[in-house]
UniProtKB/TrEMBL annotation:
<dbReference type="GO" id="GO:0005604">
    <property type="term" value="C:basement membrane"/>
</dbReference>
<keyword id="KW-0272">Extracellular matrix</keyword>
<dbReference type="GO" id="GO:0043237">
    <property type="term" value="F:laminin-1 binding"/>
</dbReference>
<dbReference type="GO" id="GO:0010811">
    <property type="term" value="P:positive regulation of cell-substrate adhesion"/>
</dbReference>
<feature type="repeat" description="LDL-receptor class B">
    <location>
        <begin position="1037"/>
        <end position="1079"/>
    </location>
</feature>
<dbReference type="InterPro" id="IPR000033">
    <property type="entry name" value="LDLR_classB_rpt"/>
</dbReference>
<dbReference type="InterPro" id="IPR036857">
    <property type="entry name" value="Thyroglobulin_1_sf"/>
</dbReference>
<dbReference type="InterPro" id="IPR050778">
    <property type="entry name" value="Cueball_EGF_LRP_Nidogen"/>
</dbReference>
<dbReference type="InterPro" id="IPR000716">
    <property type="entry name" value="Thyroglobulin_1"/>
</dbReference>
<dbReference type="Pfam" id="PF00058">
    <property type="entry name" value="Ldl_recept_b"/>
</dbReference>
<dbReference type="InterPro" id="IPR009030">
    <property type="entry name" value="Growth_fac_rcpt_cys_sf"/>
</dbReference>
<feature type="disulfide bond">
    <location>
        <begin position="893"/>
        <end position="900"/>
    </location>
</feature>
<feature type="domain" description="Thyroglobulin type-1">
    <location>
        <begin position="851"/>
        <end position="923"/>
    </location>
</feature>
<dbReference type="GO" id="GO:0043394">
    <property type="term" value="F:proteoglycan binding"/>
</dbReference>
<keyword id="KW-0130">Cell adhesion</keyword>
<dbReference type="Pfam" id="PF07474">
    <property type="entry name" value="G2F"/>
</dbReference>
<keyword id="KW-0245">EGF-like domain</keyword>
Amino acid sequence: MGVGTRCAPCALLALALPLALPAELLLPHGAERGDAALEPGDDARSAALELGTALHFYGAAVRSLYVATNGIIAVNEPKNEEKYLGQFPVSFGAIAPFMADLDTTDGRGNVYYREDSSSDVLQLASDYIKGGFPEAAFDPSSAVIVTWKLVAPYQGPGEDLTLEEKRNTFQAVLASSDSSSYAIFLYPEDGLQFYSAYSKNDDGKIPAMVGFSQASTNYYFWENPGSYNVIANDEDSIRNLHKSSNAGRQGVWVFEIGSSSDTIVPAKVSSVLASLEPSEEDQELTSKPFMSDYGSTEIRPQYVTSSTDSIEEDQHVTYSVPQLAVEDFITSYQDVTGTPSTESFYRHREFPTAKAPPRQFPAQQFPPQGPQVIDVEEFDETGIVFRYHTDVQQTCANNRHQCSVHAICKDYPNGFCCSCIAGYKGNGRQCVAEGSPQRVNGKVKGRVFVGNNPVPVTFENTDLHSYVVMNHGRAYTAISTIPEALGYSLLPLASIGGVIGWMFAVEQQGYKNGFSITGGEFTRQTEVTFLGNNEKLVIKQKFSGIDEHGHLTISTEMEGRVPEVPSGASVHIEPYTELYHASSSVITSSSTREYTVTEPERDGVASTYTGAYQWRQTISFDECIHDDSLHAASATQQLSVDSIFVLYNRDEQILRYAMSNSIGPISDGSADISRNPCYTGTHNCDTNAVCRAGTGNRFSCECSIGFRGDGNVCYDIDECSEQPGLCGSNAVCNNQPGTYRCECVDGYQFAADGRTCVAVEYAINHCQTGTHGCDIPQRAQCVYTGGSAYICTCLPGFSGDGRACEDIDECQQGHCHPDAFCYNTPGSFSCQCKAGYRGDGFQCVLGGVVKTKCQHEKEVALGSGGTFFQREIRVGQFIPQCDEHGNYVPTQCHGSTGYCWCVDRDGNEIDGTRSGPGVRPPCLSTAAPPVGIGPSVRPDTIPLPPGTHLLFAQSGKIEHVPLEGNNMKKNGAKALLHIPDKVIIGVAYDCMDKMVYWTDISGPSISRASLHGGEPTTIIRTDLGSPEGIALDHLGRNIFWTDSQLDRIEVARLDGRQRRILFDTGLVNPRAIVVDPVRGNLYWTDWNREAPKIETSYMDGTNRRILVKDDLGLPNGLTFDPYSSMLCWVDAGTKRLECMNPNQLGRRKIVEGIQYPFGVTSYGKNLYYTDWRRDAVVAVDRMISVENDNFQPHKRSRLYGITTAFAQCPGGHNYCTVNNGGCTHLCLATPEGRSCRCPDNTVGVDCIERN
């Protein structure tokens, strides 16, 4: 950026400063103008303000508004402040000139509001609007004026006393005509004295929020967030609101908030602000950003480009956030490549948008600059690369913590940079003492084919340790537990550890090694192509900087194929050089390398051969872009590597690499560019010393920081002994080589400064101990949120803040039928039809009852006389059975013959379900129980406490029972999830992501929800008949389910994509299904009345066979115990619970004479099954074949599927665990390996099937 450009915002800001908005120039307000005043309080809100002229907001007409203490005007009735403060957008929709936790109690300010159509007020509003939109033909007919006058911030006990006397004054004006509306935010000079407020939801201060939020849209139980625009949301931006403007007058902000468009459009400055000589104070302000935050940021999904067809596939997600630029306040878009568009923002008058909040990514540690663009790229070549730029000025004042403690921070015109102090090396963010040995620790995992072997060698969680002698540039690397089948074949790849040598290579004058450039924080992607057979290996490495122990951390992944090096062979690698080419944040290199393999002797002769490979690598890192001196090093440097040593120890299964490295200028090897001992490593300095090169071959040795001596011999300095008070009180000092470490004594921990030890505040679960301040359990619940924190919420049917809850009188809301009486009860209500009417109180019919199809058919079958005057029933006549709600009972039986069968919701018989006399088939009702009008229950999951639990389905909800050892902790049982209009049958659990999955036959659908809390998500809702059983492969990340109406078994990814039918023949009534992920087997039951069976296959659908077919009745439930490898089932026909080992012959009867079992699961020594007759979960000790416990939920009804939510995943892995098994789409495990399969309907999909 040139000097002239750099000064432009300064000059413009100087022009902008002189005009402030005096408080008296707010639009007239107060009691004398007829304003209503909000009740004093911490969370007051007005009754609905009915508007004479509708407000146009995001393209919709709003006819009433609510004014709230907390600096917002709500479109719908706002929630309690605990539910929205600190969050944006807000679900009820709002206009927010200063949303924060404000307080007007005890005379601390007032909030005034009115709707006004007087000509003087409309003229003032019109003038402000024309200042920002001079070309707009706008003639307002009314204006809503809301004034927050001298309002105070919320102050909790013992909080910041400096805020006690601070007060804010600001005003919002909403002017409307028949076709459009504008918002004017007015901030008088000195009107904003505080910019954040303490929140009851947070331990610290939360900056105020200025913006607009469209109301959410509700679809049954799901909520779709609306669009929103953020104007300012940090203290610096809020502080400058009264000094800046988007409408040509300081402190005035104008926005078009509704017309034919459904977006928010900020004003365009109509003219240059009045020019006056800036004062000294103004001159100081010219170094601060101007208008950088005041572009409106609107988020909507249609402008977000996202390719997420597979979790494993490439992703590219881009969010562009337009900001008001300095030149004429015209905003240009910047695309992913960083090239601004030529069209101005105001010519388009549109924002890129998303109806959900933007994804949050960690801000980069280096100071950003340029238009704010979040660009996230995920691709195979370099792993995940994050880039974040913002035009908010970053300075050392608030970013010093991003630098190392051994670095200085320096401000530049556009940001700041860190640089290591003398005696230390690094990039400023990470610094290590010059000459001190370094240690690197990490993990390695891989999946590598060797030679022509079709089976890969798979390993993970393998340790990598490296030791570096910095003043010699020599790196020693060891990788443990590498199988012999692979170990020798990795010997040629010395550069797996060579990247550590590059990081700490000896630096020649004017050149930098990898640590000086990156600080040990980078990603490295390497592709190795072996010449000859064209084998390829991809190596991905991520360096994460220095950990708390002072060691560098690294993770390594390898995948591909390497040529086979015979077991027992040795490999020799000649010294080589490699050129490193640097550009902005990226370093690349490529070379061809040779190696010599000497095979083990045979008959006294050891044969040798030479191999070669091409090496291409890309190193991506973050660099500080503000300090030009950082780029002074040559863009191309040469790494010289010699004294290379490679070894594989077959007894210890350890792979070792060692090499010496130096970095310097390009050389063809013909000239001796620098043979100084410091560069060649032939000096005699101590390993804890720095070698300083002199002229010619002269050098000197200097002990590293933390050591003392003459450089030839260096001794560690014991800082703890020499400086006894170094660590302060309540801490102990531990001396370490070259440094020391402070550790807090028991009962103390480091404070936020990382140095002072303060007493530990032990967390108390006030909800558990009963020491909370919530209302009684009959009216409120206490929700533990971690630490000693909790929140109080009123139960359904009550209103309040959770600490004081009052009953809602639902009878005032008109829920009952007009011809019914309403009776209010605490937390609920009931309806009863008046005399002469029949019905449930919500629907009342004069003198009769509205009959369902089942009731009508039953009445016809009984005769025209109805149920009171029945005619004689013919022998052999079938009378349909109806439940109390008039629905068909799912199991229909013939009174004369005794045959029973299942029917659907319309009473039609389901094929394959008719059973003989005396046997009732296990039919499922597809009609969800009626949802009474009353207090509704949100379909959120309640966070599951730690430990192992039983999860089971009970019609419209999933309940959980904690397990303590092998015992059910019944007093801890409660509902985990309420979906009252669904019939949940099958339940499965993902132990990795802590998610519960279920099938619903009323929809029908398959859904999931996180056990950390939150709303459920439907993942499959099409092409389903009656999904019943569901199983989950937590290793391969797939789900399997049965469909008894479509008679098939399907598989899909965990998010419901990539569906594939495994079986659609030979099935009549498939129900339960389970998987054995480690062995790659699938098991399921079919209660076909003619031929019930239990079948098995591999998880890819091959090797299907019948496992059990004799002595079965109605096999309902099935479970596989991963610890004992036993397959167990419950049978409602034989009344038995049985088990077997699938790999052996023979069955074992665990218990007999049980009543009507449906689902079954296992944990420890117990089997747990649900029983329809007992409405209970029954525990059976399978070792001694005895029932030892049972649990009946408070509300009695049928229980369906049951599963175990393990606290930790069972051990083991399959071939799909790592990198999806190398498959493009579905990876399905088998006992011998895995199959890559394509989903059905793969038109236009690049999918490869292979075994």
